[in-house]
Amino acid sequence: MTPPPDSRYLVLISVHGLIRGNNLELGRDADTGGQTLYVVELARALAARDDVERVDLFTRLVDDPHLSPDYAQPVEEIGNGARIVRIEAGPAEYLPKEQLWDYLDTFADNMLGFLRDQETGPSLIHSHYADAGYVGTRVSNQLGVPLVHTGHSLGRVKRRRLLASGVKQEVIDARYNMDRRIDAEEETLGAASLVVTSTTQEIQEQYGLYDHYQPNRMSVIPPGTDLTRFHPPDGAEQKAPIKKELARFLREPKKPIILALSRPDERKNIATLVDAFGESEELQNTANLVIVAGNRDDIRDLDSGAQQVLTDILILIDLHDLYGKVAYPKHHSADEVPILYQIAAASRGVFINPALTEPFGLTLIEAAASGLPIVATEDGGPIDIISHCKNGILIDPLDKQDITKALLKVVSDASRWRSMAKNGLSGVKAHYSWEAHAESYVKAIAPLLDKVEPPPRAPVARRPMLYHDRAIFTDLDQNLLGDPDALADFLRMIRENHSCTSFGIATGRRLDSALQVMRRYGIPRPDVLITALGTEIYYAPQLTADAAWARHIDHLWYPRRVRDVLADLPGIERQPKSEQSRYKVSFYIDPERAPCLDEIASILHQADLNVHLNLSFGQFLDVVPARASKGLALRYVADQFSIPIEHCLTAGGSGADEDMMRGNTLAVVVANRHHEELSQLTDTESIYFAEKPFAAGILEAIEHYRFFDACQVPRRPEDEAAQDSDG
């Protein structure tokens, strides 16, 4: 699955939202906005280039009777060698992004399975938003290919804004899974070779809040817009059904239109716009206000945030008696969005984005491409857009007088309006076409593609294990030790099923320590021995070390810097040399004196060290490379020997085992290992918490999963050849 040197197979990931090739349901909910349109258009624009062979956009498969069957189609061709690939993860129905975190490991495993089946592997992975960053980090670590990331919206920024609005910290974390989101963002920023942003302000004021802030790895590449869809009015827009729909609201439909188009989200600040319009008699006499805020049948069926926004708008319309002056249609399709801009432009109107914060502002580019001047918030993307295009006015979104003054300047001055409209058209073509975006993108990623190395493959000496159908991996110590009778029963079962089952041990111990314990308790050498927290892999029968794995995890690993950074922290003491290894730096930690794990991670991030931290039993802290863990090592081994990951039973009990147990593996926590470090897994459906301790708990899980019921010994090629010759 190695990409040919001259090919570019680019993989994009956008986990959440409703994504399809045509008629995107933009504004349906908070997750189906500009990001979904951006990734579809990016996939098409990149695939249209001669120097890109193929682009796959991975998203979540949704099979929901309340939604279009389009979202349940596993693969959708969207033209020019671009596809949408939908991956199963979690329940079949549609879920908001905040509820997807527990299913992202499954998404990563299923996505990796899809990629393994392709003739060539990806040259690069580009994740969009925090949840895709979580997935992309894992998949890129396993494949050894560069990761590019676009945040779109950042958790630390959102948390600050919500706190400022009066929402309690505990409410924010519970409602938005904010801690997990920010942790994923930090990890992604540490792993990414390139971060693509829309504006310079985004780099300085938003990513600057993160420990892994590395501006030298960030590149401003503004999104493009489809100039075949968004263009100035040509007269056809006057006959469109949406024009009649707007006219039924308006007493004087020929007035200039002030157009606001966004999701019904409090951050979009539409209520302030309505209030400003309602308080200005001059503005009402000069123009009509058109608010297109998503789609709805019944406001009461929307989520609470959208309900509140739309209710506030209706109350303000009534308060200021704006009937006949404001249009607020209930429905519009994606195909009608360009027509709305054209209708406003034909009326010599203006587009306004009064959002409290705007990371980029794709609607502003669409409006400019339609010959429509803009008024926009003086935050984020609009600053760059108006600087490039000279087609609008920046406003303080909380100052109603400022909003009113800017709108009147545009719609009341015909000469200014014509100049802004003309500037917008030329500025978009020069700076914001998809062709320009794709050109800048390919230039930015070219240095990364030169460094792609083929993923490590298994030496011929280990090929016999290919013919095993499944595998059991367990931690050593208290999982296997503690009950000699149960251990004997477990080992007997392993021997009886060894023709189809590989047996592996994954331990935090070094090799010599693990072998010593195994000899003491009569545990035979397993087929695979993963030691030192996933940093070393050895194979039976001669304990052959996997040198390819060592080279793979050495990527960006600086153990001396890790030791230096943590050396002077209180409550942290290096373990003896016997507990250290080439790819593991180990400490004792006193939780009463030492910083918490999040603070330690932050300190390492600020030193530009991208690593995995493992805290076991509250007193042992181990630091290993970002590409190393028990879970990543297990998946590497399973892939080398073509054992489906869903045929791997894993038994763990400390925090170091967590990623071995998430995702598509079958997992068990034995009774004596129901440790608080794994308490967050109790609601995970794929993990079985045994009632029995030690090896008896693993036997209990084997019975629970009916693990050996379908055990098969796959036919070897030489066996099939022999049968053919006999025939």
What is the secondary structure topology, with strand pairs?
Elements lengths: L8 E5 L20 H14 L6 E7 L14 E5 L2 E6 L16 H13 L7 E5 H15 L3 E4 L4 H10 L4 H8 L1 H14 L2 E4 L2 H7 L11 E3 L20 H7 L9 E5 L8 H10 L1 H6 L1 E5 L11 H16 L6 E2 L9 H10 L3 E4 L8 H8 L4 E4 L3 H9 L2 E4 L4 H12 L2 H18 L2 H16 L20 E5 L2 H4 L3 H13 L4 E6 L4 H10 L7 E4 L4 E4 L4 E2 L1 H7 L5 H8 L5 E3 L10 E5 L7 H10 L4 E6 L3 E6 L4 H11 L7 E5 L5 H4 L4 E4 L17 E3 L4 H12 L11 H10 L1
Parallel strand pairs: 1-2, 1-5, 2-4, 5-6, 6-7, 7-8, 9-10, 9-12, 10-11, 12-13, 13-14, 15-16, 15-24, 16-17, 24-25, 25-26
Antiparallel strand pairs: 3-4, 17-18, 18-19, 20-21, 21-23, 22-23
Fold and architecture overview:
With 727 residues, the chain is an alpha/beta fold. It has an eight-stranded mixed β-sheet with strand order 3-4-2-1-5-6-7-8, sandwiched between helices. Strands 19-18-17-16-15-24-25-26 form an eight-stranded mixed β-sheet, sandwiched between helices. A hairpin with a 4-residue loop joins strand 18 and strand 19. Helix 2 packs across helix 3, helix 9 crosses helix 15 and helix 19 packs parallel to helix 26. It is elongated. The two termini are 34 Å apart. This is sucrose-phosphate synthase. One of its GO terms (molecular function) is hydrolase activity. Its EC number is 2.4.1.14.
